[in-house]
């Protein structure tokens, strides 16, 4: 095998037999890269921390530690591990961005928003109830108005008849005095 290296350490030439081997090149995951060890195919953290997520792994390791993460993942069902890792990464990144508050500030802000939205929802329901009652009263009053109008006409016609009768008899309805 004939290998020539130039002064910068880059391989300048490789024998033809060595090129045709097609060996799979596995890049170390972020966890193995951080710990400076060779990443194996059965690395438990490789699926969750590929090589390009080094910063996230560093934050997780700093907050939780590798052993605690491995223990947590080992205690979970395989179907729930990805969600757990996403939560761990989220919390670690929040803590890295805000050392004092971490994800607590985000949770508190969301709880305030939920409280505000619930209050707005109650207000809208109250307004809706008010407008429905107003519409129902308006509809009822239209019908009541028609009935009241007929009653009023009947009463007025009766009172007119009474007035005419009293006038003929010489008695005033309003004062009860004769003319």
Automatic annotation (TrEMBL):
| InterPro entries membership | LOB (IPR004883)
Q: Which stretches make up the LOB domain? A: 27-128
A Pfam family matched by this chain, by name?
LOB
Name the family. Answer: Belongs to the LOB domain-containing protein family.
Q: What is this protein called?
A: LOB domain-containing protein 22-like
Native organism: Cucurbita maxima (Pumpkin)
User: What is the name of the gene encoding this protein?
Assistant: LOC111492440
